[in-house]
Design a protein that fits this description.
By secondary structure, the chain is an alpha+beta fold. The protein has helices at about 40-45, 55-60, 75-95; strands spanning about 5-15, 20-25, 30-35, 65-70. A hairpin with a 4-residue loop joins strand 2 and strand 3.
Length: about 100
């Protein structure tokens, strides 16, 4: 049986040519990490796709393992669901 690990979606979430906002969003909607990267090349390294950076945060959230997914486009259905869950989490926080 193949074990399916929860996904963490990593992507560029805006910015400018010299200041990219890179984010990591868990499939359950929780924002796990962010980083200001100098360019798209370093963004994957800075958020942990091509390095061990940020993995302590990911392991804290998913101690039994996870899969990092880099998104160049935002059409992934799992990512869309994570965004909706993130919105619901934000609404819950606002109503406390």
């Amino acid at each position: 049986m193949i074990e399916v690990k929860p996904k963490i979606y990593c992507f560029i979430n805006g910015g400018t040519d010299y200041f990219l906002n890179v984010a990591a969003l868990a499939e359950d909607g929780n924002h796990l990490a962010g980083h200001a990267s100098s360019n798209g090349y370093f963004a994957k390294h800075d958020i942990g796709i091509e390095s061990d950076w940020k993995h302590e945060l990911y392991k804290k959230h998913y101690p039994n393992g996870y899969e990092l997914v880099w998104l160049d486009e935002y059409e992934d259905e799992g990512f869309k669901k994570a965004i909706e869950k993130n919105k619901k989490l934000a609404e819950t926080e606002e109503n406390k």
